[in-house]
Amino acid sequence: MTQDRDGEAHLQVPRYSGSARINHWVVAISFVLLMISGLALFHPSLYWLTGLFGGGPTARWIHPWLGVVLIIGFFGLFFRFFAANLPERTDWVWLARLRHVLAGREEYLPEIGKYNAGQKFVFWAQAILVLVMFVTGIGLWPAGLAYFEQLLGFKATIDQRRLAAVIHAGSAVMTIAIWIIHVYAAIWVRGTISAMTRGTVTGGWAWRHHRKWLRKEIGKEPGGPQPAE
Predict the structure, then answer these.
(1) Contact at 8 Å (CB) between 31 and 74?
(2) CATH code, 90
(3) Res 217: pLDDT
(4) Which residues are catalytic?
(5) What angle do CA 208, 209, 212 make, to 5 degrees?
């Protein structure tokens, strides 16, 4: 139990384990660094951002390796949480009542599991786009491309590499847009950020936003909620 500034006690419900939070922040930090270095290399007007990495050559060298860190970290998140992000019938009800979501009228929404339809969209969209960016990024990375050409026994053409550049840039724009939505939603829904900083949420938050998940957590053990991935 914790207390707020008025001395009112709040039940804390475990939502994310320590390893899950570390995994999340590795992905988050590598994504932000990739975004900055990618924007720096995308257009001359943003080239000044390479100064954050020690100059253009260093930014160009580190960018693909950050991509490797991101893909490994994201696969960790994917295998942890994909089951909780599978579509359910209530997701369609939630989407149909999106106006109530935006207005904060939770009483008009169905009971939600660990993630709502919006969170699931972010999860699956980013999973697909991160994979697309990794594959197309290989085509723009001389060392990586040479390795896979030798491994798979093929030679990428100039047209294929140009197409990879277009798809890579387009996917990056979409991932950044979704990331902005993700961050905004975490700030907008008060109490959400503590889930990834302290690993817990208040019982009131869980009851209001993810009641179905809360019921499941409470039912795991007679003594109360238990940590979940």
Answers:
(1) no
(2) 1.20.950.20
(3) 85
(4) 182
(5) 95
